[in-house]
Amino acid sequence: MVNRQILRVLADQNRCASSGNCADVAPEVFGQDDETGVVVVRDETPSDQERDRVKQAEALCPAQAIRVEG
Questions:
Q1: Do residues 70 and 6 make contact, with C-beta atoms less than 8 angstroms apart?
Q2: What's the CA gap between 50 and 17, in Å, rounded?
């Protein structure tokens, strides 16, 4: 059994370019504000099952506004 750290997701709304890549890749974790399109973190500590999608969202963010710890 692999012992993984708990994920922690952070998003810098001031850097967000409102591309929506994060919400497309991991909709359970990321959303977008209805008015501005800026990233909204729906789940700051997602389950381990979301790990790959959250890391992909981080990599796809054109503004590098998403940071994943753990």
A1: yes
A2: 23
10-68 per-position pLDDT tens digit: 999 999 999 999 999 999 999 999 999 999 999 999 999 999 999 999 999 999 999 99
Strands (DSSP E) found in the chain: 8-11, 30-32, 39-41, 66-69
- 9 bridge partner residues: 68
Which helix H or strand E contains 7, and what residues bound it? Answer: none
Whole-angstrom distance, CA of residue 63 vs CA of residue 54? 15
Q: Kindly report the pTM of this predicted structure.
A: 0.90
Distance CA 48, CA 20 (A): 22
